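Protocol step 6 of 9: fold each sequence in the batch and record its structure tokens directly after the sequence line. For illustration, a two-sequence batch is reproduced in full.

Sequence one:
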Amino acid sequence: MKAHIPLFLLALICCVKATHFVVGNPALGEFDHGENVRYNAIPFIKRVKYYFYSQPQNRKIVAIQALDNLHTQSSVNVTAGGVGHSFVNLRLKSDRGAGMDYSIGIYVERLSY
């Protein structure tokens, strides 16, 4: 019986592992832009897509969230801009043979009056 407990915990950890990408602190800013990015799977192929966002009022980005809705082993990287800039370029790469479904949220600095 005791041997089954570590095996169960290992299986549980493997099943719920997802690759969420969060940079910065969303509580420090206000939500500015949200979008769902979806791409279909192609068997045996890794999908690579780029996401570009530019803040029209040149307010600085304080946080970026990319939440993996499919809970796959896909990855997200910032290729340009990001926190402290008014733009961001993200590179999304799927797991081999898997699709992508990310909820992307951009938070910018609050306006002070």
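Sequence two, same batch, same settings:
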Amino acid sequence: MELKQSELDAITSNPLEAIVDIMDTYGTEIKRFVYMYLKDEADTEDVTQEVFVAVFQNIHTFKGKSSLKSWIYSIAANKCKNHLKRDRLRHFNLIERLTRQQSSVSSKQEDLSELYLQNSLNKGLFEKVMDLPIKYREVVILYYYKELSIKEICAILNEKESTLQSRLLRSRKKLKDSILNEVGGIIHG
């Protein structure tokens, strides 16, 4: 459904008012779409915000050849795809760094932090960490294995401090649940 010229003119002449109307009209719908794509609440919030920032920044380019709704959905789909690509790239980089770290552990046994990592590997904790979703895994590794502060991790991952603190808490819970499930399985199994 194409927009009438008067509607198109109203959008391009007052983009701030238009974006408020657009967010009121499509906000919940787009958020649901993004959640279905990403299946993660925190990422959904971030990407939904990115979608509406992009809509605001690019509203002047909207020509009305398609419906406004489909234009916004295409922006949302692209933002979701980009987010998933970034996650895959982070995952690949993390695996690469960990592989390098594992090889250095065997050559530098005298370093206590490296020794701790080796002990953790031997006890299976590292495998449990690696089973975590990437966004939790990277925070655990940077915080516990690399001993970086939350502020340092914020700079590395380009995330808000509150987001990373929340991820760290969630990752601890996931690890605890995983360990308790394994111990429960051994006791009951």
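Proceed to step 7 once all outputs are recorded. Observation for sequence two: The longest helix spans residues 68-107.
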